[in-house]
Amino acid sequence: MRRYTKPAVALTTLGALTLAALGSGAADAAGTAGGTTDSGSTSRAAAESLSWKHGTARVNKRIMERFTSEFLPTGDPALARKFISPDIVMHFGGRTQQGRDTYLGVVAANMKAFPDLKWTVEDMRAEGDTVAVRYTMTGTHRGPFAGVEATGKAIRAESMAFYRLAQGKIVEERAQLDMLSILQQMGAVPAA
């Protein structure tokens, strides 16, 4: 299990990363071989398709490593433009919302509620256009959150999110935060 608490990957440009991952050596990087026979082995087209999907997953995972290490700690709108599509669709707690400005509003509200908010990546998996991330969220409840005024209590909760990327940006996020645990830690809901 890998944990990303500091910038995990230093990249000079996304363009260079894309060329390295999807360039002429993509089949070699994916561990596939070209030209095959009809005797049951993988066709060249299938190998290239597998290589493309593997390359896409690798690029998307690197984008998400940067998103979690650069954007999440700051909520910087300039960084949001790098990583988040203007038309992102978000699914949180049974609600669907849309737009980068809405996303930034959610992030700002969370940072106001928990000024020392920290998202630690516990695990990250990528396949095709989707990256799954398991987080631990920690912070001190210093502002309104989920209808609960500041309590000054420290919280720690688990979260999982699936991010779908297109053209190097997050276009959809499906996230599930352990709200019951957070509300219990804040004292808003009795512990079981």
First and last CA, distance: 30 Å
* Biggest sheet, spatial arrangement of strands: 2-1-6-5-4-3
Q: Using the CA coordinates, give the radius of gyration.
A: 20 Å
Main pleated sheet: 6 strands, mixed
Structural class: alpha+beta
Helix proportion: 25-40%
Number of helices: 6
List the uncertain runs. Answer: 1-41, 47-52
- What characteristic shape results from the CA principal axes? globular
Task: Report the average pLDDT across residues.
Answer: 80
Q: How much beta, percentage-wise?
A: 25-35%
SSE sequence, one letter per element = HHHHEEHEEEEH
- Total strands: the figure is 6
Produce a short descriptive summary.
Helices cover 37% and strands 29% of the residues.
Written account of the structure:
Strands 2-1-6-5-4-3 form a six-stranded mixed sheet. With 192 residues, it is α+β, with helices and mostly antiparallel strands. It contains six helices and six strands; from the N terminus they run ααααββαββββα. It starts with 13 loop residues before the first helix and ends in a 6-residue tail after the last helix. The chain has helices at residues 14-22, 26-30, 44-71, 77-83, 100-113, 179-186; strands spanning 84-92, 95-98, 118-127, 130-140, 154-166, 169-177. Helix 1 (14-22) packs antiparallel against helix 3 (44-71). The model is unreliable at 1-41 and 47-52 (pLDDT under 50). A hairpin with a 2-residue loop joins strand 1 and strand 2.
